[in-house]
Every structure is written in C-alpha cells, then in structure tokens.
C-alpha cells in the first residue's frame, strides 16, 4: 500500500502526527484519500477515514482486526493482558465480555446501583447551586469530572465519596486522571525500536510511578472489601462491581478463574473508560449548549413540558425527552469520546481493496468519519435536529458505520449503557436547574467558549469551562 506522504528515515511520519493524532490523520487524508498508509518509527500504520473502510474493519474482516495494539503504558496498567480493554481476543476475553454485559454492566446491576448515581448528581447540583448563590466563577469542568469519577468509583468499590472514605475516592480520582494522561501520551519508544531500552521522555518513569500507586491503592481497597465480606457474610446488601468480581474469583466452578491481577486490570479499565470519557462528553455537550442558547432554551422547554418544575429529572424520564437524546447524539458525533479506534491485524486482510499485512496497526478515525459531508450535511454545525429528521433512527451502538461513537462489533464498548445513562440524566439536570452562559464581553454581546481540543486519551477541552451558573430551579430551597 502506497497511499501516503513521503516518510523520513528512522522516524517515518512521526513528525506529521503531532499531539492530536486524529486531526493530523484527517488533514493527511484530505490529500491522500480515505485510507492512508504511514510509518511511525518502525511500525506500519493504516488509518481508515470513511464509513466504508470502517465496515471492513468492524464487520467484513472483523476477526482479522479483533485485537488491539499494546504500548508500554497499556501493558503496565493492564497487568500484561490481565484486564479487558487490551486483552487478546480469545477465551479469557470472551468470558470477561460476557461478564461485563450480563453482570458488571448489565441492566440489573445498573438498576441496583442507581441510588449511587442519584446521590452524586444531587451533590453536583448542590455544589453548582452554592457557587451560583455566591456569584463566584466556578471550574465547571472540574465538577463534571468529579461527579463522573465519584459515580464510577462508588459503583465499583462501594466507597463513599465523602467522610472518612472520601480521601481514598479522591486518591482514586487523581490516579485515574494520571492513567488517562499517561496512556494517552505519545511515547517514542513504543514506535522507534532503538529507543526501547531508554526513557528519553521520562514517561516510563511516570507510568511506573502511577501504576505503583494505583496497585497499592487497589490492594488496600480489595483487602477492605474482603474483610467486609468475611464480617458481613454476603448478606442481602446491594453488591458493587468489586463484589461481583470477587464472587467470580472465589467460584471454583467459574468458566475462567479471575486472579487478583485480573480484578485490578478490570477495575482500571472501568475507572478510565467509564469516568474520563463521560466527563469529556458532558463537558463538550455543555459547551455546545452555552454557545447555542436557542438549543439550550429548546431543551429546557422540553424538560419543563414533560417533567414540570415540581421535581427533578430522573433516569426513567429520558425515553420521553427525544430532543435531549438528540443533543447527546450530536455531541457524540462532533466530539466522540474515543476519536481513534485502534486495532492490529492478526492476519493478512483487505480494507477498501488494499492489502493489509499481519502485524499492521489499523486506526479507524471516528472523529473524521463523523464529519464526512457525504453522510452529514453541514458536518461542522452543532444541529441536534438532524437526528430527529432522519428517516431511519440512528443508533449509537455501532449498527451504522458512519456513526460509531462506542465502536462496533466484538470490541464495541460494553459500558455504553452506563455512559449514556450518566450523560443524559446529568445533562438534563444541568439544563433543568441552571441557565448557562459564558458571560458578556466588553461590546455587550454574549461571549462564546472556544472549542479547542486538548491533549489526552479522551480528548477533553484544552481550556476548562469557567462560568457562574444561574439558578432557575433550586431543589434545595430550605438550605
């Protein structure tokens, strides 16, 4: 395959990728076509930028692309291949996928843990309300990150996000952030083989430090949980996700016996995939609503007409709020939480008629596909109405290859239901309880937030949302 720009000795095309790879690949694709071949150091890479190419990866040759490439960070944080996200396709991966879908992230478990999500949403609303009353500017991005992390950590471990256990939850939040930052950072030694034995960026040392701290924290959390289980004897209390994993670890008849490393790897997968991606999506959704006040107003009118002002939005209300759902879908289109789906060819295959040899890295550029004018009129415009006007309903779970925010096929995200749950209800509460704007400029006109992407695995905003929310519905009037 020769569809790509000329490369340089040793580094190949690394100098063209930059800190935000999906944007760089999009630019290169505009000159060299929908599928491009690059060399990153000593590694061969194919980038797919169209829905038709994505179909070949996700469906036509799915088994050939069922594995994900490993990096120094992913091997470290996944305890080799003990987790789920980077485990090779095979019996263990199939077992854990089934465990995730039926037990860990299945409907029954999510329903049982819904009180945790509600408590953390109310804490978010209370924090925003208190800041609004004082007229103080607030780092809203930080609060959104905190609520999503608290929800995931509490659902996994059962620890409270305040009081005595709040310190551990805060430490887990900090470490989850460190994992996302380091695993999403460019590590030259992953691509240039002559650097394998060196740490020229100091990144390996940072990865090792974060992993060591995370491992120590997880060991304390697991020991605490094991002690709880010995004292409580199981009982009828609501099980958290760590309980479910320990049940499997202790089950002599389980199809696959989990180890302690498996549990730590799975917990880290859930921490990073479930919290940071959801926080980034909430951040982008709110940014779009601030910059598009007419859409914000229409969403609020829908909520008021369906829910009224006598109570707060609940999870059960979401099916009755189609415009809110369209806002979430449009946010995931313009700002996909995982802009690049990474694969590695385990055998020779074809994409769009091009030969792709085994061991080639294959990236599906979801970010670029979501902005393809062949599928999306006015692709750069934030227009939730596009999802209401479609002749065929567009699902977010990978059935339409020009819209795959959670991937598609065997490697699609098992946590999509939880992420969508948190996204919809939290955003609905932000709209229902507050009015959002970025302030007024010197010319008296409403300010707009910049929409610059930052660096990281989940593509957060480069600059946080800083504003003073205006209370319109106070759920805590007596305080």
Automatic annotation (TrEMBL):
Similarity comment text for this entry: Belongs to the cytochrome P450 family.
Source organism per UniProt: Acorus calamus (Sweet flag)
Pfam families (alphabetical): p450
Residues engaged in binding heme: 413
Annotated InterPro entries: Cyt_P450, Cyt_P450_CS, Cyt_P450_E_grp-I, Cyt_P450_sf
Protein name as it appears in the record: Cytochrome P450 93A2
Cofactor(s) this protein cannot do without: heme
Keywords carried by this UniProt record: Flavonoid biosynthesis, Heme, Iron, Membrane, Metal-binding, Monooxygenase, Oxidoreductase, Transmembrane, Transmembrane helix
């Amino acid at each position: 395959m020769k569809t790509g720009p000329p490369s340089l000795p040793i580094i190949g095309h690394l100098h063209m990728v930059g800190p935000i790879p999906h944007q760089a690949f999009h630019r290169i694709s505009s000159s060299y076509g929908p599928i491009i071949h690059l060399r990153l150091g000593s590694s061969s890479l194919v980038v797919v930028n169209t829905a038709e190419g994505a179909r070949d990866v996700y469906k036509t040759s799915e088994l050939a692309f069922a594995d994900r490439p490993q990096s120094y960070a992913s091997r470290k944080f996944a305890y080799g291949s003990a987790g789920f996200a980077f485990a090779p396709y095979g019996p263990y991966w199939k077992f854990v996928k089934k465990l995730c879908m039926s037990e860990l992230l299945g409907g029954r478990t999510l329903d049982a843990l819904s009180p945790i999500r509600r408590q953390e949403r109310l804490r978010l609303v209370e924090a925003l309300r208190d800041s609004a009353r004082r007229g103080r500017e607030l780092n809203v991005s930080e609060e959104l990150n905190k609520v999503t992390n608290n929800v995931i950590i509490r659902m996994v471990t059962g620890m409270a996000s305040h009081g005595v256990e709040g310190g551990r939850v805060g430490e887990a939040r900090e470490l989850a952030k460190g994992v996302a930052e380091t695993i999403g950072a460019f590590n030259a030694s992953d691509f240039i083989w002559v650097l394998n034995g060196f740490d020229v960026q100091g990144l390996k040392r940072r990865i090792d430090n974060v992993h060591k701290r995370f491992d120590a924290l997880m060991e304390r959390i697991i020991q605490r949980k094991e002690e709880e289980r010995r004292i409580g004897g199981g009982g009828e209390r609501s099980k958290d996700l760590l309980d479910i994993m320990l049940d499997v670890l202790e089950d002599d008849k389980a199809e696959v016996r989990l180890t302690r490393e498996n549990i730590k790897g799975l917990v880290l997968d859930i921490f990073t995939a479930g919290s940071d991606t959801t926080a980034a999506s909430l951040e982008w959704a709110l940014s779009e609503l601030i910059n598009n006040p007419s859409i914000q107003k229409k969403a609020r009118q829908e909520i008021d007409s369906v829910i009224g002002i006598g109570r707060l939005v609940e999870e059960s209300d979401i099916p009755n709020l189609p415009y809110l759902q369209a806002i979430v879908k449009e946010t995931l289109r313009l700002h996909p939480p995982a802009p690049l789906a990474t694969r590695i060819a385990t055998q020779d295959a074809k994409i769009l008629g091009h030969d792709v040899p085994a061991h080639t890295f294959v990236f599906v550029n979801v970010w670029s596909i979501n902005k393809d004018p062949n599928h999306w009129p006015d692709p750069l415009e934030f227009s939730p109405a596009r999802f209401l006007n479609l002749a065929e309903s567009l699902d977010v779970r990978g059935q339409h290859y020009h819209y795959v925010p959670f991937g598609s096929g065997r490697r699609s995200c098992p946590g999509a239901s939880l992420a969508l749950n948190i996204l919809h209800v939290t955003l609905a509460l932000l709209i229902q309880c507050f009015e959002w704007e970025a302030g007024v400029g010197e010319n008296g006109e409403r300010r707009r937030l910049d929409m610059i992407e930052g660096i990281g695995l989940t593509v957060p905003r480069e600059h946080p949302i800083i504003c003073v929310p205006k209370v319109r519905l106070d759920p805590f009037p007596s305080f």
